[in-house]
Amino acid sequence: MALSGIQIYKLLPQTNCKDCGFPTCLAFAMKLAAKQAELDKCPHVSEEARAQLAESAAPPVRLVTISADGREVKAGNEIVLFRHEKTFYNPCGLFIRLYDDEPLDEVKARAEEAAAYSVDYVGRSLTIDGFAVQATGAGEQFAAAVEAILSVAKLPLILIADDPAVMSKGLEAAAGTKPLICGATPDNWQGFAELAKTHDAPMAIRADSLSALAALTEKIKEAGVQDIVLDPGVRDLRSSLALNTLIRRMALKKTFRPLGYPIISFPEECVEDEGLVPIAAVQAIAKYGGFIVLDRFSPATIYPLLVLRSNIYTDPQKPIQVLPGIYEINAPQADSPVMVTTNFSITYFSVANEVDSSGLPGWLLVADAEGMSVLTAWAAGKFDAEKIAKTVKSTGIADKVAHRKVIIPGHVAVLLGELEEELPGWEIKVGPREAVDLPAYLKAGAWQ
Ligand code: SF4
To answer: What are 126-158's pLDDT values in tens digits?
Structure first.
């Protein structure tokens, strides 16, 4: 059971030395109890106390990692039920399932296509995370499919087979990687647990009820396998939502260790209508899938899922920002326009993309507005005349252009007078309110 803050405090040195970064041992103890700090931050805790605290300090959802060729997918270590409470740390992995009974050339082609897919989203490159390889027959066939996939895309794998002997062949073919072994049930788990220990790989287990699942995790732990992934076994939208939520609640709110593991989800198996697959996948991303296996790769489906995942696993307390400074668009020259905006990623990319796609050259000055959009930053006093003037001066744009004109967003036209005082010698031009109108504004030459 988890210890309370006071119980943890009694095990700490109680010297209030602050070496942990907290003002008192009690403050540190409270953070430990809330799973918002790590015990290692206190260098003075005794070995005896450390042993007592270890169980309490362990994350409520165990971190499980699979990997291949330096690329990792981590699931678990989450400490809140809702992202607005704090943040979700480890984005769920999105995997495409390939079957071993397809011609190997076809398997390779599918793997190559999915692995090559990448979405550029607010400065991040979003991709799928790996492949799930489904066994349908003999071990040799399974191994051939695993080898074929790894020959064209060295990404983390989930190996799915009902028979430990078949799984063993797949694991041999995946040597050098750390895949997730998927297929254990209450009837056959021993063989899979042996494989998990031999190959130092995590294993996923499926059972028909949560109590059976919890009992199975305990047995597997006793057998020496610590990294476990849960498959609640249900295959419909409503039940998966209910059980995934229950598992996460039990792990976080009750610190119920037997269910404190990441979950694997199979969205396609939860719906009969193919058109509902994206809905099932969205549910799995939002409600608590750690490893998500999709049966088909299609850019039209995967794009919104990648973006959704990116949004859900972004810290809501930290706006996505770009670095302040000068950004050159379409090879600007000394006579190109100078525009200014804030460092909120979406604002930056809205403006930059509009100018870029217009084909017109320009200098984009990005002010440090603490990651806020133009109007929000202005209202918060983070994008005022002083800040804009400082950006113009500190970036050295005056050395790059022959003119002295700077275009400010139409939303902050009210800063015109103040800015003229802050930037003597510069002519302040009020641009359009919306980024989408920038190309027309620039083409009309109104800033010159
Ligand atoms: S480092 Fe340890 S002893 Fe020092 S204040 Fe933090 S918890 Fe207390």
So the answer is: 999 999 999 999 999 999 999 999 999 999 999
Q: Which of 45, 54, 59 is nearest to 10 (CA)?
A: 45
User: Which among 22, 26, 36, 39 is the best mutation to test ligand 1's pocket, defined by most ligand atoms within 8 Å of the CB?
Assistant: 22
* CB contact at 8 A, 225 and 265: no
**Structural domain for 41, as ranges:** 5-57
Q: Tokens 């610590």 map to which residue?
A: 226
**What is the pLDDT confidence band of residue 35, given thresholds at 50, 70 and 90?**
confident
Residue 1 has a pLDDT of 57
Ligand 1 centroid–CA 23 distance in Å is 8
Give yes or no: residues 330 and 298 share one domain. Answer: no
Quote the ligand 1 centre to 64 CA distance (angstroms): 29
pTM: 0.79
Listed residues 281, 312, 343: the one ending a domain: 312
Residue 396 lies in a domain: yes
**b/e map 425-436, b = 16+ CB within 10 Å:** ebebbbbbeebe
* Tokens representing residue 355 in the block: 């100018």
**Contact predicate 351/363, CB 8 Å:** no
Per-residue pLDDT tens over the stretch 297-318: 999 999 999 999 999 998 877 7
